[in-house]
């Protein structure tokens, strides 16, 4: 599994004919998280005229709300801004404070889309992948060699366990699986115990894979 999303919260605002538009985007992993974000913004901006939202979760769930604006003029353009960038696991909420001048249907569509685009353009875009995790158990003598190999290959890892031997947990992208397994065997003189575990989500940023 692989998808494109944003790395962190992003916010941008602008004024259109005296109406203030505030666009906010947040990476989310479930519909529940998206709803919590929406409720948080609504609570924060109870006095706003509208709190329009849209979200996409792993390309399977998409939701949107015009929140009182004319049908199709608010939630739809926000969702389209998300989908045009091929983003998923993203929720965008656009808050509007009415300035007294009507924008018309076309003006609303352009304004809500602009608010969504601005906050998404300001966000750091990352690629997220689900990759297998290998559990590697070696003696302390060989552990530093395994760590050096993982660092050289740029492998993300979970917290190791230090008992009679050391057990490390390494995320390995498919292209590096054969090389990693072969070299772990070589570095440990064939003594390493290796087992494929569950999977982990990692983000690709600046040429490296990092745990999400």
Automatic annotation (TrEMBL):
Pfam families: Impact_N (PF01205). GO terms for cellular component: cytoplasm. PROSITE patterns: UPF0029. Residues 17-119 form the Impact N-terminal domain. GO terms for biological process: regulation of translational initiation. This is YigZ family protein. InterPro entries: EFG_III/V, Impact, Impact_N, Impact_N_sf, Ribosomal_Su5_D2-typ_SF, UPF0029_Impact_CS. It comes from the Bacteria. SUPFAM superfamilies: EF-G C-terminal domain-like, Ribosomal protein S5 domain 2-like. It comes from Carboxydothermus pertinax. Belongs to the IMPACT family. Gene3D superfamilies: Impact, N-terminal domain.
